[in-house]
Amino acid sequence: MTRRGTLLALLAPDELAERVADIDLARLREHGFEGLILDVDNTLTPWASCEMDEATEAWVRQAKQEFRVCLLSNSVRGKRMRALAEKLDLPGVSAWGIGRKPLRRGFLRALSATGTAPEKTVMVGDQLLADVLGGNRLGMHTIWVKRIRKREFITTRVGRVLERLCAERVRRAGLMPERQRTTANDG
Q1: What is the domain count for the chain?
Q2: What pTM value is reported for the model?
Q3: Position 187 in a domain
Q4: Residue 2 lies in a domain
Q5: What are the pLDDT digits (tens) for 112-171?
Q6: Does residue 182 have a pLDDT over 60?
Q7: Is residue 69 part of a domain?
Q8: Residue 125 included in any domain
Q9: What is the DSSP annotation of the chain?
């Protein structure tokens, strides 16, 4: 489904989740999704790290069994993203410059890596103005997760100010979904 209408509609995620490990893979599969594109920094790992917590790593490994998965990062060199992709045995796309999220090129390269159509693909990320906007522009199902830590790249921190304003406008317009409950494993 391609989103039409206002910029606010393009900024509205389809779902919210506290963290990646809370996303119900079986439900996504039931809805016919075949691919997952996952942001890296502050979605899977803390910023500037290759370390995932156990629950996130287990979720990604389970996702690999059920979906075609690709990592997508706005990293300049992509060294950490490539190391994480290798560790998880996944394809990874490092997008910078004219390929940077929310622009199309990085997303199209990730879709090519998964071999899935946008409407059959879920984009998961922590940034409304990069991950959600970019995924929505291409007609993907988008899930906005809470960032892992506040420590971030300087331009991301600046963008968070605008993100908060946009998120509030999306909420006031009645376009923001409710946050999903945590999984049964979380108690």
Answers
A1: 1
A2: 0.88
A3: no
A4: no
A5: 999 999 999 999 999 999 999 999 999 999 999 999 977 666 676 777 778 889 999 999
A6: no
A7: yes
A8: yes
A9: ----S-HHHHH--SEEESSGGGS-HHHHHHTT--EEEEE-BTTTB-TT-----HHHHHHHHHHHHHSEEEEEE--SS-HHHHHHHHHHT--EEE--GGG-TTSHHHHHHHHHHHT--GGGEEEEES-IIIIIHHHHHTT-EEEEEPPS-S---HHHHHHHHHHHHHHHHHHHTT-PPPBPPPPGGG-
